[in-house]
Design brief:
InterPro entries: Kinase-like_dom_sf (IPR011009). By secondary structure, the protein is of the alpha+beta class. The protein has twelve helices and 20 strands.
């Protein structure tokens, strides 16, 4: 039996992990430009003050968290990681809240986004206010979050905003670039759910976020799982008191306009997104006039002279697609390759006109992601560093994928990299990979973009041929073509510190 104070003071147990998925998290087009990030001043002092003013000594509580032998469950994917977080944080905080004499805190609970659905996509973990009797009409989300797997994105720990605002060194802002994706996704949840508070966590490190203005988000430095004074649980107790307060909401009458500003990083005099910076030749949401087979990327004469698919050629695993919902091409699925959790996108291995290739399918509500990736590949100059786009269009008939859009790519040889693979590589091989990455990034810079999710899992490496291929251009951001190619994507893939070059 322990008091609330004792339970909250313990550091989190270390996760049992040896290996797991090397795929990065879902590609995220919801970026928050780092110019809108500011330090959350006094966060730890506020945690301490809140704990000192709270009565946390009366109740004697039991919990299955913190076993003497440490963690007993091994994890290898995001779902398991969130499960361990809910056991080691959500359950403990739920007991502490439940024992509180403060009626507002008493009914706070941790949960998932299916409990309180909201616009802006599915969040990972919520702090929820649950009235007595669990009346559905009275349950409200108070704090929202996004999760990342720490073994696929270890650089999060280096994104310390306290060290990223050096006025003498403009390069210090590079530390925050790895947060633009995950904090951008979190900011979208906060904006659309009209919330003031949120957090982004990898379990090993957690960043707490407070929205203090229309385009201002204050963040803490990453706080480690085994921190004390304050501990992670104590930090979440403080976040609970904020979520239980009367000002947990941040009303925003035009969330779509707000997020357009946050993504672009540009404001005009009316506090609206500026369009003057946009290059009409950059990847955007406007669909080009032509559609279907793109001759620029075709490598086979067979694809250049396709005929409409015949019913006799179809099977239960066929995908028929074309322009304006007209049946023009048939992709035959051979095997499932990957499904993006929560977003209903799927990747298949199959054939188009007898040629083995890869199909990436997007549901209808992700048309922006589809158009962005398609247009980015249309702009890429020919190179060995990216798959070639063979075809694209509207899905007309498919049992596997009911509606939406499809892009067909060449099937490239190689293994998906991961941080464990890179760690165990000979230095000479890593040097070659780094060199090839720089060449690949130079191709992106030639069309003024940067990769938004440059993780090892988005890179194929063929040791025998020495060929490297970057994947997943579903989300790219505008970038100055003169920016050095080894500053962002290369360090993110190789796992080197963002303010350094080389190994």
């Amino acid at each position: 039996m322990q008091t609330q104070a004792e339970l909250l003071s313990h550091p989190l147990p270390k996760i049992l992990f040896t290996s797991g998925t090397s795929n990065p998290n879902n590609p995220n087009p919801h970026r928050l430009h780092n110019k809108f990030l500011s330090p959350w001043e006094g966060f730890k002092n506020n945690v301490t003050t809140t704990l000192n003013n709270a009565d946390l000594s009366d109740s004697q509580l039991t919990t299955t968290a913190d076993p003497p032998d440490g963690e007993l469950i091994m994890v290898g994917n995001k779902h398991s990681l969130i499960g361990r977080f809910q056991e080691n944080v959500g359950v403990v905080l739920g007991k502490a809240f439940n024992a509180s004499k403060d009626e507002k805190l008493k009914y706070l609970r941790f949960g998932d986004s299916q409990v309180v659905r909201g616009p802006g996509g599915e969040a990972d973990v919520l702090i929820i206010a649950c009235p007595p009797g669990l009346r559905p009409d009275g349950i409200t989300c108070r704090v929202v979050s996004v999760f990342r797997m720490y073994w696929t994105q270890p650089y999060i720990k280096d994104a310390r905003i306290s060290e990223a605002l050096d006025p003498v060194d403009p390069q210090s802002r590079l530390l925050l670039e790895c947060l633009e994706g995950p904090i951008g996704q979190l900011a979208r949840h906060m904006v659309y759910r009209q919330l003031r508070y949120g957090f982004m966590s990898t379990y090993e490190y957690t960043i707490f976020v407070k929205r203090t203005g229309h385009t201002r988000f204050e963040i803490t430095d990453p706080i480690k799982f085994d921190s004390t004074k304050p501990s992670i649980r104590e930090c979440f107790y403080y976040m609970g008191t904020l979520g239980a307060g009367d000002d947990y909401s941040f009303p925003d009458p035009k969330p779509a306009e707000t997020f357009a500003i946050l993504k672009s990083g540009n404001l005009n005099a009316d506090n609206k997104p500026s369009t003057s910076f946009r290059n009409p030749h950059k990847p955007g949401w406007e669909a080009p006039e032509d559609d279907g087979i793109d001759d620029k990327y075709v490598e086979s004469e067979e694809l250049q002279e396709t005929t409409p698919p015949s019913i006799k050629d179809t099977t239960p695993r066929s995908i028929i697609f074309g322009k304006n919902m007209m049946s023009q091409h048939l992709f035959q699925i051979q095997e499932d390759m990957f499904e993006y959790s929560g977003e209903h996108k799927r990747v298949f291995v199959g054939s188009l006109n007898g040629i083995e290739c890869i199909a990436k399918c997007f549901p209808a509500d992700l048309v922006e992601s589809y158009v962005h990736e398609r247009n980015t590949y249309r702009l890429l100059p020919p190179s060995r560093y990216f798959p070639k786009m063979l075809a694209f269009g509207d899905i007309v008939i498919s049992r596997e994928f009911q509606d939406g859009h499809i892009i067909i790519f060449t099937k490239e040889k190689g293994i998906r990299l991961s941080f464990p693979i890179l760690k165990n590589m000979p230095q000479e091989e890593k040097t070659i990979i780094r060199r090839e990455l720089i060449y690949a990034v130079k191709v992106l810079r030639s069309i003024d973009v940067k990769h938004s999710d440059p993780t090892p899992g988005n890179v194929l490496w063929n040791k025998d041929s020495g060929k490297l291929v970057m994947l997943d251009l579903e989300c790219t951001f505008e970038e100055d073509r003169n920016r050095p190619a080894d500053e962002w994507e290369v360090n993110m893939v190789m796992g080197t510190k963002l303010n350094q070059k080389g190994f």
